[in-house]
């Protein structure tokens, strides 16, 4: 199975992906936890480019193709081999992020993005996507607090610095993805406390995976 976690900044998706992974490992389930961008050596270098301080503005097209290059490496070197070995693959951000951020957020054609996603993934699609929904203002508040707590540099906060209208468009994009793919995408309330949300995710996953 390919399981993806999606959501706006500060929604808690990374925390929930890790909690599901830890729980499955404790149960002896053969699984991996990975992410985009930066899961491969080349992906790490791409991530460094994406997070360069804005001495030179990254155009929306350059940003898009950097993310897609990262995904191409990720698919070939991490996801495909793990799926071939019958592992459960848990991914923190995947193709839906491209549609939400570069499509709805940046205004790039959704049809064009879907064609590119199809190409770089070799038609691999998630079996289930957990979408953690949260009001953008609350999400940004959480993200900025997290970055301050973790002493993150400006390299880590590129999207957090976007205007609130951008984040509202991204959220709208995610909700539209939910409408289009109701059998794949599971909507979750990002305002819930971490552990009750983790339990809810595990029970949904357990049903889908027939564990």
Q: Your description of this structure?
A:
It is globular, with a radius of gyration of 16 Å. It has one domain: Rossmann fold. It is α/β, with parallel strands linked by helices and 211 residues long. It has helices at residues 13-26, 41-50, 60-84, 95-105, 110-121, 136-149, 164-180, 194-209; strands spanning 2-7, 31-35, 88-92, 128-133, 185-189. Strands 2-3-1-4-5 form a 5-stranded parallel β-sheet, sandwiched between helices. 56% of the residues lie in helices and 13% in strands. The chain starts with a strand and ends with a helix.
Give the averaged pLDDT, no decimals: 91
Structural class designation: alpha/beta
What is the class in the CATH system?
Alpha Beta
Largest sheet: 5 strands, parallel
Q: How are the strands of the largest sheet arranged?
A: 2-3-1-4-5
Shape: globular
How far apart, in Å, are the first and last alpha carbons?
Answer: 12 Å
Brief overview, please?
The protein is α/β, with parallel strands linked by helices and 211 residues long. It has helices at 13-26, 41-50, 60-84, 95-105, 110-121, 136-149, 164-180, 194-209; strands spanning 2-7, 31-35, 88-92, 128-133, 185-189.
Secondary-structure map:
Layout: E1 2-7, H1 13-26, E2 31-35, H2 41-50, H3 60-84, E3 88-92, H4 95-105, H5 110-121, E4 128-133, H6 136-149, H7 164-180, E5 185-189, H8 194-209
Parallel strand pairs: 1-3, 1-4, 2-3, 4-5
Helix pairs in contact: 1-8, 2-3, 3-5, 4-5, 4-7
Identify the notable features of this structure and list them briefly.
56% helix; Rossmann fold; globular; five-stranded parallel beta sheet; 211 residues; alpha/beta; single chain
């Amino acid at each position: 199975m390919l399981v993806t976690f999606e959501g706006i900044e500060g929604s808690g998706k990374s925390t929930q992906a890790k909690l599901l992974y830890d729980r499955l490992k404790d149960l002896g389930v053969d699984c991996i936890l990975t992410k985009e961008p930066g899961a491969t050596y080349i992906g790490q270098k791409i991530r460094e480019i994406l997070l360069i301080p804005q001495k030179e503005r990254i155009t929306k097209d350059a940003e898009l193709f950097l993310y897609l290059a990262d995904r191409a490496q990720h698919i070939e070197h991490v996801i495909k081999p793990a799926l071939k070995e019958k592992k459960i693959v848990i991914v923190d951000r995947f193709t839906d992020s491209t549609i939400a951020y570069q499509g709805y957020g940046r205004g790039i054609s959704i049809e064009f993005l879907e064609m590119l996603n199809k190409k770089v993934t070799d038609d691999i699609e998630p079996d289930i996507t957990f979408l953690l929904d949260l009001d953008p203002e609350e999400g940004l508040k959480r993200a900025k607090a997290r970055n301050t707590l973790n002493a993150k540099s400006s390299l880590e906060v590129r999207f957090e610095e976007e205007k609130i209208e951008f984040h509202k468009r991204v959220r709208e994009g995610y909700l539209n993805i939910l409408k289009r793919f109701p059998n794949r995408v599971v909507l979750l309330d990002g305002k819930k406390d971490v552990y009750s949300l983790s339990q809810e995710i595990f029970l949904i996953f357990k049903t889908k995976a027939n564990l």
